[in-house]
Amino acid sequence: MAEPFANLKPGVQIVAEEFIPFARELSALVARRPSGEAVAYPISESVQTAGICTATLTPAPGLTPEQEHECRALALRIADELGVTGILAVELMQRTDGSVVVNELAMRPHNTGHWSIDGARTSQFENHLRAVADLPLGPTEATDQAVVMVNVLGGSVSDLVAALGGVLAADPGVRVQLYGKDVVPGRKVGHVTVTGDELEQVTARARAAAAALMGGDDE
User: Which CATH architecture best describes the domain 144-219?
Assistant: First the structure.
């Protein structure tokens, strides 16, 4: 077998990443203020479809307490060593053996933390502002046993505000956040959040509401 990149012209530079077999993607969200106080949110599972985050499940199903603690501790340590002020999202790959490896860092409120707006005691946006102002940080616990956020991607529904009535009539417990963006196919234009006791039921409700806003059937 030929060596990788053997046909590259002399002087051409590349960036290559190690292939890591993984089972799923996780997100560890933390907030840190300049004085050093830091808090960690429950670990979320990030559901990817064609390279786009389409949903998050919080807390990540199937994580043991030890794995949850490991992920939170890792994110808090990274935030401390980097001297982060505000929100830091640590995107993780969970290997097939259960261990995790850092995939990406985002030093800002992050899409994988949008569930916290309607599903946590303090949203990532509020804690980001508290941290920047060096104010005491708010509690990060989820408000229910399961919190599912599903992104609304641009589809056949052009007037999302007009579509809200039908969505909320079908399920008054759904919380909808619209971003005020022009609807472009595949673009993140909002998200829905549902909380409850049963993960499967909560997931089904969130997906149905998002599908209605996108103009497609719930998959």
Answer: 2-Layer Sandwich (3.30)
